[in-house]
Amino acid sequence: MGLCAVVMAGGSGARLWPLSRASYPKQFLTLNSEKTMLQDTFSRLAGLDITDTVTICNEEHRFLVAEQLREINQSGSIILEPKGRNTAPAIALAALSISDDPILLVLSADHVIKNEDIFAESVRKAIPIAETGKLVTFGIVPDEANTGYGYIKKGGKEGEGFKVEQFVEKPCLETANGYLSSGDYLWNSGMFLFRASQYLKELEKFREDIFTGCVSAVENATVDSSFCRVHRQSFEACPSESIDYAVMEKTADAVVVPMNAGWSDVGSWASLWDVTKKDKHGNASLGDVILHDTESSYIRTDGALVAVIGVKNMIITVTKDSVMVADKNSVQDVKEIVKKLEDQGRMEWCSPREVCRPWGKYDSVDNGDRHQVKRITVKPKAKLSVQFHRYRSEHWVVVSGTAKVTNGNETFILRENESTYIPVGAVHALENCGEKELELIEVQVGTYLGEDDIVRLEDRYGRVK
Fold this sequence. Notes:
Blueprint: E1 3-8, H1 37-43, E2 50-58, H2 62-71, E3 77-81, H3 87-97, E4 103-108, E5 112-113, H4 116-131, E6 135-140, E7 151-158, E8 161-168, H5 173-182, E9 185-195, H6 196-206, H7 208-219, E10 222-224, E11 227-229, H8 232-236, H9 243-248, E12 254-259, E13 263-264, H10 269-275, E14 284-286, E15 289-292, E16 298-301, E17 306-309, E18 314-318, E19 323-327, H11 334-343, E20 354-357, E21 360-367, E22 371-378, E23 386-388, E24 392-400, E25 403-407, E26 410-414, E27 419-422, E28 428-432, E29 438-446, E30 455-458
Parallel strand pairs: 1-2, 1-4, 2-3, 3-11, 6-12, 14-16, 15-17, 16-18
Antiparallel strand pairs: 4-9, 5-13, 6-9, 7-8, 7-9, 8-12, 10-11, 18-19, 20-21, 21-22, 22-29, 23-30, 24-27, 24-29, 25-26, 25-28
Helix pairs in contact: 3-6, 3-7, 6-7
């Protein structure tokens, strides 16, 4: 029997700051392979009979999701959440949006699974259980007394799995050691398998408020290309709750199937170090890194040379706008730095210096009180919106490629080393009419340089309000 894969791609990944940011979280990053974590999630479905897919993401990430799925030739619907409401409502949106009442394989887009064959085999073992009306969760066979995961206590046998006797919150180390030695506990993976109608039945039974809100959100949804936009007011009024609290801890039909596939939720820099290839000294390094007398550390740079001397158990991460240094035993506190940045109104908490757009990307290479310089890259045949600005002028200089430019009442072609000046208030547009990427330097000058000083008149990506 075919399955419908439901991939949850929301979340901010704050514990992997500064690499992961609210506007570009970890599921869209290449952390442990040449593909992004979202793409890896879809790739590991190859060993299963998947007949349909649904991806659930935040509205602001819709183009990131669409582009990354296009790169791996993955089709399927994309449901947009206007605001994050945790996993119970997100899964309900998928279950309500799919016809024919399939069995849903619910996965997170930000997990690492090293042995995809064992993953697929565990799913196949769980299918007969789900077909009987049970709600299956996958429990990871623990290999250490980890205090960063919730646990599931196994009960009596149920097919290839076990009845769930108890869900347990993240324990202290002493308790975790007891769980490990008993052999009765599994890590809570956050992966599930059940029939859509059965999940909705249990959700309505235990959390009718969530069920009703999601029904209204889907019934009043609109479809825009491959995007399903649920009704904003209905969904934002829906309570925020995890599937564990809303359903799995309350239902009498919860079953756990063990999985021993090299799983990690990559929830911190320490867990990323765990799953990354290391040298003989236990160091995982990526980018332009030179090490001396360094052990058991994770060092990553996106540009500048990083030289590390005489340290042990350290996390050092360098991006284009931030440097983060932490003891490996303190990486759970990275979220405290993110909170301080947010409280101070600093953009580093949510946005990287290089920002992706549906047409390409831009890198803010310099800025001051009245100026900003960006390096803009436009994909072949892509076009920025027809727009104007109220507070800033712009000067474009083409570095490589061929640009079709609209500037006021004129439309013309610019090539390498050619430029144009766009006054404040002038309607303008930029299109890459070539077969290669277009690169240009944009110099902005004005009293206000924020991204919200963009008035879009036309846009092929549906961003005109």
